[in-house]
Specification:
Helices cover 38% and strands 14% of the residues. By secondary structure, the chain is of the alpha/beta class. Bound molecules: S-adenosylmethionine (SAM), 6-(5-methyl-2-OXO-imidazolidin-4-yl)-hexanoic acid and iron/sulfur cluster (SF4). Residues 44, 60, 96, 98, 130, 151, 153, 190, 220, 222, 225, 262-263, 290-293 line the site of 6-(5-methyl-2-OXO-imidazolidin-4-yl)-hexanoic acid.
Length: 325
């Protein structure tokens, strides 16, 4: 069955549906396309931290903001290997490697990252990387090393983009997503809510993701983690109802995609997260740290899974009934 083409107005109407009805509809879409209660658990590791030349207003790793993040050069393959073992033992089937780079350069560091990818892949885990902009050739090298997914968020709407970031533009982002696709990798792309954006910007972001063909295999929805020292430090916390609404709308607009309840879970109750899963979230980042900020511990999440009757998705399995088109 072909994917529906949504207009911005239609997406806005979905977003503004009375909450109970919205959740009910999203649950139905979820059940139609996915195994209910199965959640992908991904671990995150910052392999190169801080000192980034970009000016993303939300990000504690941008060199120009005075945050408590300590700059750390690229980790060694051994350190990454140990972290992957730990993540696997904690129940993660995917590991995402993050680097505070504007773009990948063809140097020794990139060769090391390729070795990291090979090492984690050999453990039977899906490997994802988020390293900034990449060319098609670099994406191919990552794919050849065994990379499964590339994360590159569009973060917000096209209209709002340059109020958040000035050192690159929306087309740069879409270009990298295109390169990743051409290299045969799966695409992970989403964004952040709680940055002072309008509802229309949330809708605009979902619209851009919805018109990608194929649609992204995974869409992370992050609640801003307001970090001291960044221009976003005083942003009020995202109301849980906005997160549920955003997740439900994403689920309806991108029916076959894995919707990831991403940053910000430490500020959410178990009940709040349960409603997010009910609304169609079927993926989380687990482990004590996201990239630089704290996150629930593996055993806390496993307790939540046990209470809510959730199960963890195995690596390289696809519960979708049809291909993404
Ligand atoms: N440097 C690469 C890039 O920007 O693509 C990869 C790492 S970057 C930290 C990955 C993503 O993390 C960003 O696109 C953004 O969506 C998310 N992120 C960063 N800081 C965040 C924050 N304070 N709260 C929520 N999400 C955040
Ligand atoms: C994504 O969408 N969220 C993750 C991952 N992709 C790379 C990153 C969240 C970062 C939150 C702030 C921090 O810990 O530095
Ligand atoms: Fe750099 Fe990525 Fe942070 Fe932007 S989001 S400042 S590109 S690490």
């Amino acid at each position: 069955m072909a994917i529906k083409d949504w207009t911005k107005q239609e997406i806005l109407d979905v977003y503004n549906t009375p909450l109970m009805e919205l959740m009910y509809k999203a649950s139905e879409v979820h059940k139609q396309h996915h195994t209910v209660g199965e959640v992908q658990v991904s671990s995150l590791l910052s392999i190169k931290t801080g000192g980034c030349p970009e000016d993303c207003a939300y990000c504690p790793q941008a060199a120009r903001y005075h945050t408590e993040v300590k700059v750390h050069k690229l980790m060694s393959v051994t350190e990454v290997n140990d972290a992957a073992d730990n993540a696997k033992a904690g129940g993660a089937s995917r590991m995402c490697l993050g680097a505070a780079w504007r773009e990948v350069r063809d140097n020794r560091d990139f060769d090391t990252v390729l070795d990291m990818v090979k090492t984690i892949n050999s453990k039977g885990m899906e490997v994802c990387a988020t390293l900034g902009m990449v060319t098609e050739e670099q994406a191919r090298k990552l794919a050849d090393a065994g990379l499964y997914a590339y994360n590159h968020n569009i973060d917000t709407s096209e209209e709002n983009y340059n109020t958040i970031i000035s050192t690159r533009n929306y087309d740069d982002r879409l270009n990298t997503i295109n390169n990743v696709r051409k290299a045969g990798l799966t695409v992970c792309s989403g964004g952040i809510i709680g940055m002072g954006e309008k509802i229309e910007d949330r809708v605009g972001m979902l619209y851009t993701l919805s018109i990608l063909r194929p649609q992204p295999e995974s869409v992370p929805i992050n609640a801003l983690v307001a970090v001291e020292g960044t221009p976003m430090e005083n942003q009020p916390p995202v109301p849980i109802w906005d997160m549920i609404r955003m997740i439900a709308t994403t689920r309806i607009i991108l029916p076959k995609t894995a919707v990831r309840l991403s940053a910000g879970r430490l500020n959410m109750s178990m009940e709040g997260q349960a409603l997010c899963f009910m609304a169609g979230a079927n993926s989380i980042f687990a482990g004590e740290k996201l990239l630089t900020t704290p996150n629930p511990l593996y055993n806390q999440d496993m307790e939540m899974f046990s209470i809510l009757g959730l199960t963890t998705k195995k690596a390289f399995t696809d519960t979708l009934k049809e291909e993404l088109v």
